[in-house]
Amino acid sequence: MTLDHMPRIVVDDVAKHFTLRHTHTAKDWVVWNLKGRKEARSDDFVALHDISFTVGDGEAVALLGLNGSGKSTLLKLVSGVMRPDTGKIRVRGNIAGLIEVGAGFHPDLTGRENVYLNGAILGMTEQQIDEKFDEIVAFSEIEEFIDTEVKFYSSGMFLRLAFAVAVHTDPDVFLVDEILAVGDEPFQKKCLAKIRELRDAGKALVIVSHDLDMVARLCSRGILLERGRMVMDGPIDEAVATMRGER
Ligand SMILES: Nc1ncnc2c1ncn2[C@@H]1O[C@H](COP(=O)(O)OP(=O)(O)OP(=O)(O)O)[C@@H](O)[C@H]1O
């Protein structure tokens, strides 16, 4: 297989667990000691198991599922901010996107300084950021506030700048977690148009959203998670219908 035909994203038999530590009072602690420390003081919680799928160039895949089903955890594993306990994740090329808005922003720096900081985190050189700077700011439509410290930004302004930087990094893989919700409607439309543009340019997209109408329009494929297990990987219409309980 030539590199061009290899999947962009490979998720191979991945599992992730978390340790849930319970809060205990001093009395609980004494009782626990008196009882001979038999009960576990933390629970092992399996957030994802047996997850395998691939995503190719030009594919837009929606991760669907009820609250707590593991969508955001899976997206974080794909992005590399978290590592799986078992299994493998391989992503070729540059990754960008919006997973935790503002995660790469420093509150005491201005919008302008944060564009440089965030661009660098996403792998751009200073010269590349210089070249794209005006376009990024124009896309965000927050020119007036670009020299204001971002701690004074509203959540929508944060989103605008973070999205603008992310889409201007020329990513091969674009990941989006339920974030467009804080943008106003005109900006959401603009973001969706930009995401479509990336898809049509052959980028691989993975989108987490509860907005089934939006993902039905944007994605071709849906992966449905239920309590950390993949229960479906198929055409988006079927995945959305299953989510809606129509089949
Ligand atoms: N860092 C963590 N430590 C402990 N548990 C976690 C952690 N991150 C996620 N979880 C747990 O893993 C499960 C899956 O969470 P996740 O955020 O991936 O779900 P989700 O499908 O994105 O949910 P939602 O639709 O509500 O955003 C949840 O039960 C959550 O409490």
TrEMBL record:
<dbReference type="InterPro" id="IPR015860">
    <property type="entry name" value="ABC_transpr_TagH-like"/>
</dbReference>
<dbReference type="GO" id="GO:0016020">
    <property type="term" value="C:membrane"/>
</dbReference>
<dbReference type="Pfam" id="PF00005">
    <property type="entry name" value="ABC_tran"/>
</dbReference>
<dbReference type="InterPro" id="IPR050683">
    <property type="entry name" value="Bact_Polysacc_Export_ATP-bd"/>
</dbReference>
<dbReference type="GO" id="GO:0140359">
    <property type="term" value="F:ABC-type transporter activity"/>
</dbReference>
<dbReference type="InterPro" id="IPR027417">
    <property type="entry name" value="P-loop_NTPase"/>
</dbReference>
<feature type="domain" description="ABC transporter">
    <location>
        <begin position="9"/>
        <end position="247"/>
    </location>
</feature>
<dbReference type="InterPro" id="IPR003593">
    <property type="entry name" value="AAA+_ATPase"/>
</dbReference>
<keyword id="KW-0547">Nucleotide-binding</keyword>
<keyword id="KW-0067">ATP-binding</keyword>
<dbReference type="InterPro" id="IPR003439">
    <property type="entry name" value="ABC_transporter-like_ATP-bd"/>
</dbReference>
<dbReference type="GO" id="GO:0016887">
    <property type="term" value="F:ATP hydrolysis activity"/>
</dbReference>
<protein>
    <submittedName>
        <fullName>ATP-binding cassette domain-containing protein</fullName>
    </submittedName>
</protein>
<keyword id="KW-0813">Transport</keyword>
<comment type="similarity">
    <text>Belongs to the ABC transporter superfamily.</text>
</comment>
<dbReference type="GO" id="GO:0005524">
    <property type="term" value="F:ATP binding"/>
</dbReference>
